[in-house]
Specification:
Layout lengths: L1 H26 L4 H38 L9
């Protein structure tokens, strides 16, 4: 599972790198009004990513809490 998560993290990082490069190029040539919209869109994308991360963290914490509440079970061996 860690490999899949690493691939996703690498993909997200690569997408942000591409976005930063494109945004740097665009900001040199686009009108000021477009810059405002691009900045707002980038903020919204980051807020969406934060929501995804918060949900994943909450799920992990719930799993950890559930795992810590488990008690040993007796197993009958023949």
């Amino acid at each position: 599972m860690a490999k899949k998560q690493d691939k996703i993290a690498n993909l997200v990082n690569a997408l942000f790198d591409v976005e930063r490069s494109c945004l740097d190029l665009l900001l040199d040539v686009v009108p000021e009004e477009a810059k405002k919209h691009l900045t707002a869109a980038r903020r919204e994308k980051l807020l969406a990513l934060r929501s995804i991360l918060d949900a994943k963290i909450k799920n992990l914490e719930a799993e950890e809490k559930k795992a810590s509440k488990r008690k040993p079970q007796k197993v009958k061996v023949q």
